[in-house]
From TrEMBL:
The keyword Oxidoreductase does not apply. It catalyses: 2 GTP = 3',3'-c-di-GMP + 2 diphosphate. It comes from the Bacteria. Its EC number is 2.7.7.65. The chain crosses the membrane at residues 6-26, 157-175. This is diguanylate cyclase. It is an enzyme of class 2 (transferase). GO terms for molecular function: diguanylate cyclase activity. The keyword Transmembrane applies. Residues 221-356 form the GGDEF domain. Keywords: Membrane, Nucleotidyltransferase, Transferase, Transmembrane, Transmembrane helix. InterPro entries: Diguanylate_Cyclase, GGDEF_dom, Nucleotide_cyclase, Rev_trsase/Diguanyl_cyclase.
Length: 357
């Protein structure tokens, strides 16, 4: 037996008591208590407004990709609570406000507008939700007043009993809401944990698990896998220290990400090894990417005082094209790793593409 069930049973008992006591003399009494659903409607509007206000705060206070992603989540949650049939029927501002939310979500996902501009656009939907909340409260107030006028002193005992059951029901409902908030918090914490579990903590890009998951989500598609290794990274750490090595990893992650195509994704597999996943219809696409990445690293001229041959950081790159599947990914990884090994054994600072066996 849940708190929600107890709350609903309380309201059912309240309705039964009213029907029995009034002996159907006052049918409007039933109409009054049928408005109990408005409590839920009012809470939907309130919670939707809170989500939109949270999105505004995120866009204004903490600009950045993470804040934008959280704002998108808040707006989507608010949209689901806002898009209710009764709101469309009774409140003219609903459709226009949902349209604003659609445009705001599109702008956030495309990162095509300033956060402060998007935050300002949310004021109209928030005002609409406030109007809905007030309308719900006004409707309840009118029905309660009409009920009180019709029943009068003749139903004092009924009123006392109803108030008692009503507040018991509200207590159960409050307990249900508290339990629901705890569940939502636990769900959010789980989602946050899952997101962190798929990220490399040093560079903020995806990790090996994220790479495998992304491949499995693109079954039967032609993809390119690129493995990147920093030449003589151990010597760099020994000479410059691990903090400098961490800084270099972050800088190279940014450089590799900038060299990626718009549809490609970067991952850190551990140590000084990175991987990139991108659409690959033919080897020419992969070759162009490897050449661009190799050229940009050479132009960046990151200092490497411990490099045996040069005074700047260099990369070894191995790549292959494959068709996404569990076995296809395993074969592709082996082929790209083989290409990387051949580059390393032939002097490093180069790239090579090998076809999947």
């Amino acid at each position: 037996m849940t708190w929600l069930s107890l709350s609903l049973l309380s309201f059912m008992a309240l309705m039964t008591l009213i029907i029995f006591e009034a002996r159907w003399v006052f049918p409007d009494i039933q109409a009054y208590f049928s408005q109990s659903g408005n409590l839920t409607g009012q809470q939907l509007a309130t919670r939707s407004r809170h989500y939109l206000q949270n999105a505004q705060e995120r866009l204004l206070d903490v600009p950045g990709p993470e804040a934008r992603a959280q704002a998108i989540t808040d707006i989507e949650l608010a949209y689901g609570l806002f898009d209710v049939d009764i709101y469309h029927q009774r409140y003219a501002c609903t459709a226009a406000s949902l349209g604003v939310l659609d445009e705001t979500l599109a702008a956030l996902e495309a990162d095509s507008a300033l956060p402060v501009v998007l935050a300002r656009e949310l004021f109209n939907p928030i005002n609409c939700l406030t109007e809905i909340e007030m309308g719900q409260l006004d409707q309840r107030g009118e029905v309660i007043t009409e009920f009180a006028d019709r029943t009068g002193w003749h139903h004092q005992v009924l009123i006392y009993s109803s108030v008692l059951i009503f507040f018991v029901g509200l207590l159960f409902w409050w307990l249900h809401e508290r339990q629901l908030r705890r569940a939502e918090k636990a769900t959010q914490e789980t989602l946050t944990w899952m997101e962190r579990a798929m990220q490399d903590p040093l560079t903020g890009i995806g990790n090996r698990s994220a790479l495998h998951q992304d491949v499995m989500q693109q079954q039967s598609q032609s993809l390119g896998l690129v493995l990147v290794d920093i030449d003589f990274f151990k010597q760099y750490n020994d000479a410059m220290g691990h903090p400098a090595g961490d800084t270099l990893l972050r800088q190279l992650a940014q450089l590799i990400a900038n060299a990626l195509t718009d549809e490609a994704t970067l991952y850190r597999l551990g140590g000084d090894e990175f991987a990139a996943l991108l659409p690959c219809e033919d080897a020419a696409t992969l070759e162009a990417y490897c050449q661009k990445l190799h050229r940009q690293v050479q132009q960046s001229e990151f200092t490497h005082v411990a490099h045996p041959d040069k005074k700047q950081v260099t990369l070894s790159i191995g790549a292959t094209c494959f068709v996404a599947s569990e076995s296809g990914f395993a074969s592709a990884y082996a082929a790209a790793d083989k290409a990387l090994y051949q580059v390393k054994t032939s002097g490093r600072d180069n790239w090579r593409i090998i076809d999947v066996a």
